[in-house]
Fold:
Amino acid sequence: MITIGSGDGVRPWSGSRSPYEPFEVDHYADMLVVRPDGDVTILEDAAGNELNRW
Structure:
């Protein structure tokens, strides 16, 4: 996963609890939840092929 935040400002990753974390991960017994916090997020497979962009 690639996340692109704003290059300026005090909180480049405005959605994170910590200002310099490009994503947050929560884990549960039966799932893993990843919350990207960038202006642009790109999801890739293991070979580097782009699967989704938002």
Remarks:
- The radius of gyration is 12 Å.
- The first strand starts at residue 2 and ends at 4.
